[in-house]
TrEMBL record, chain B:
Signal peptide boundaries: 1-22
Xref: InterPro entries: ABC-Purine-Binding, PnrA-like
Pfam families reported for this sequence: Bmp
PANTHER family (UniProt xref): ABC TRANSPORTER SUBSTRATE-BINDING PROTEIN
Keywords: Signal
Highest taxon, organism lineage: Bacteria
Location of the ABC transporter substrate-binding protein PnrA-like domain: 25-313
UniProt name for this protein: ABC transporter substrate-binding protein
GO cellular component: plasma membrane
TrEMBL record, chain C:
GO MF entries: transmembrane transporter activity
Pfam family, one: BPD_transp_2
InterPro entries the UniProt entry points to: ABC_transp_permease
TM spans (from-to): 6-25, 37-58, 64-84, 96-115, 135-161, 193-214, 220-238, 245-265, 271-289
Key word Amino-acid biosynthesis present: no
Origin: domain of life: Bacteria
GO CC, any one term: plasma membrane
Keywords annotated in UniProt: Cell membrane, Membrane, Transmembrane, Transmembrane helix
Keyword Cell membrane carried by entry: yes
Membrane topology annotation: Multi-pass membrane protein
Protein name: ABC transporter permease
Subcellular location: Cell membrane
Amino acid sequence: MALATPVLAVLATMVFGGLLFAVLGKDPLQSILTIFWQPLFGEFAFYYRPQLLVKGAPLVLIAMGLALGFRAGIWNIGAEGQYIIGAICGAAAALAFYPLEAWWIFPLMVICGGLGGFLWAMIPGLLKVKFGTNEILVSLMLVYVAEQLLSSMSLGLLKNPEGYGFPGSRNLQQYASAHNAEIIAGSGMHWGVLAALIAVIFAYVLLTRHRLGFAIRVTGEAPRAAKFGGVNPARLVLFCLGASGMLAGLAGMFEVAGPAGQITIDFNVGYGFTAIIVAFLGRLHPIGILLAGALMALTYIGGDIAQSQLGLPAAAIQVFQGMLLFFLLALDVLTNYRLRFGAAEVA
Amino acid sequence: MTFTKLMATAALTLGLATGAFAQDKTKVGFVFVGPVGDGGWTYEHNQGRLAVEEEFGDKVETVYVESVAEGPDSERVMTQMALDGADLIFTTSFGYMDPTINVAAKFPNVKFEHATGYKRADNVSTYSARFYEGRAIQGHIAGSMTKSNIIGYIGSFPIPEVIRGINSAYIHAKKVNPDVQFKIIWAYTWFDPAKEADAAKVLIEQGADVILQHTDSTAPQAAAQKAGNVITFGQASDMAQYAPMPRVSSIIDNWAPYYIARTKAVMDGTWTSTDTWDGIGPGMVGIGEISDAVPAEVKAEALEMKDKIASGEYHPFTGPLKKQDGSDWLAEGETADDGTLAGMNFYVEGIEGDIPQ
Amino acid sequence: MDLSVINPILLLAALMSAATPILLAATGELVVERAGVLNLGVEGMMIVGAIAGFIVAVNTGSPALGFIGAAAGGAVLSLLFVFLTQVALANQVASGLGLTLFGLGLSALMGQSYVGVKPPRMADLDLGPLSDIPVLGRILFSHDAMVYIGLLIVLGVWAGLKFTRAGLVLRAVGENHDAAHALGYKVKRIRTLAILFGGACAGMGGAYISLIRVPQWTEGMTAGVGWIALALVVFASWKPWRVLLGAYLFGGITQLQLNLQGAGVAIPVEYLAMSPYIVTIIVLVILSADKSRAPGSLGRIFHASH
């Protein structure tokens, strides 16, 4: 059942999405094929398959961290902000040493990026632990603060001195020591993809084998039982927020050092929010998130192809993605009853 | 490097394989940063695309992708268009600069046109519009018509493009009205109509009776209309629905002639990498009809200035001009060079306030 | 720099109008959350309301009908959320985010042929002698009808929650749905009505932007207001009057920032633009230090569907 519903949801989305495309005057079958088939098996799949990794990696990396917290009922919805701060810290670390070429620059960026995201997420974390403030609100507020910082950095401190006054930093793709290049050329596999895979494995082991993972699951399913079971809620809050912030920060850092290349006013493209959807599409389960991230990336890439080849408006793709989530959530009712039954026993 | 080769080979074999029937239709791709329904920047580029279709009919096929984020997404969309056999790709946002260069390196046979950037290659041209020419005319009308001597200016971000416009408008407003004062509000957004409306209202409340905007929505027009006795200028598109008052004229982005010419060049095989910075003369910058709300003699002067700029007889940045700090910039009769204009990061003498850093 | 050009009366008057969209949306969301449901789809409902209201207003020529259409549009979209969370028992956070994604796309499709159209203008309400009162008249009595309707909705929600039986039941459902259920209240029906009300309010808030504040239609024109409204509810610790206060605080800082810029004060705009959010966080900390005011039922909101 747990496997059947996502497949059903995708099929239902194809049917209703096809209807939508038909209403817009496009060939429904061709539209669906373009979105789902072309990137994977089409003529140019050699290019799109690696792109799936590039697009999916930050989503998976962020969603994995968020899922840990979501499972424990700790709602970090400010990953977008942590992503931005991670990118700024990572890029700043590299640019501080420009044009020095040294092997330790990239590792330093990784540390700074992860630390930046971690610290940014510690703000809602510590405030929640100290004062009981709501982490949803604080983390969300900090997204807007981070966005303003980003524009300040692109226009000021990190602005490329050789950029003729235009906003935006130097391009890290042209700074060898800082460039998060593909590990194998043409594979799309950069360090961020590797980090996402490691995060998935790590989270899987944590949730299934480790005591902390147990604490997370119990807290989410039966908070009172967890307290009696000796779970320290404050430490759990800090761990979940810190871990998700760090992963989001890393995602931002890998992105700015690799595919994106530079800090600009519009550097963030909503990965932090989309990752929340990915986390739920993947049912907060590590393997599920991996698949959900790939699926979401597929609809983005396929959606762009459909726009260009068939003239579908971008909004139609957005509606299509919304449908996908709705159908999955709606069909979840089938498995939900089972889960609730299980949860009732624990409580 | 091997990947680059792979891509190049793929493109080459494709070119050879599909060349036979790809030749009869020229495929032109457009990468848009916003939705085509934004009523401003992207809307006007899309009008240019439609003009290309109209001009060449069956001989051309245009494709576009809208709301493409700058960065890796844009790189992917460009690559996809190139793989799909596009002969010419217009990338219409400054942030697409490095992605355009990257993709162009992989597809030496595809021509790229990047708007508003400064990096070129053998198969990458750049193009931009001299909007400041239109700003000069706006400044003239604004300076002549203001009664409170306060002109409000809504800027997006403090970047050279916007600063150039402020300077140009100020110089020409000051010329006809030495007492004129500019109030500048930076919205720090490319797109937030509600904020633009607020900014316009604030400027009006602080005494401005002319609002100039470097943001694309009609929100300031509506705010001016409500306040009454405030004049505005259409930006990006004509905004004729607010004529004759408050909108007394407009600067229109008109990309159609350029897009048609460049498509033609690709068809004829005469395309070469160029740096185009066109203004009123070649028609890239259009001046919307000056309405009857403008006094006849001001209108005549404005039109005369338009003709002189179009013919090249007059350059909006002609000395003597000093920078804000009082240092000399242009000597008597000297005109600004394009390099300085492109990277303009200073106000001219007389404008109050600092450019935010 | 000349601070005297800032007219505090006009600033306050502008504030009342500028705060109306968030005020409407946040008040609606407050009712939803008081019923124990978290709907993160406010942005989506607002933008659908913005275009629905725009379409109705343009085609009928009546802004008033436009606002009714906007309320209907927001409510219809929220029905989707009702189905997901109340019938299919799906997660509310994910459903709400999906609603926003869906609403943004849907509104763009609906509005394709309305770009560049000028909507009919809503006249300011003529309050006769009231608007002639010095200072207060300009601040309080010189607005369009929706400003007052917004305030009336806040008043109604406050009174309704505090004094009526329906309000009591709604709060009971939000505080402890099991107990409410045991007492024989129809939890799902009450929540459904609350969500629809929230959708309608958000829709009107969106239409206030597309019909009055801007007024025009462009894709994505709500530009994140829905998220601010959402934050405002928590900021207000679920009390209607604090929503009002918060809406003015948020709107006020933006207005002040623009005013200071116009007056030529060299302010770092980015840092001032982030200040409302930082202030919110600080206020939140201060509020939560007062234990009696700490939002106690928060955890229950998220598990309400269990």
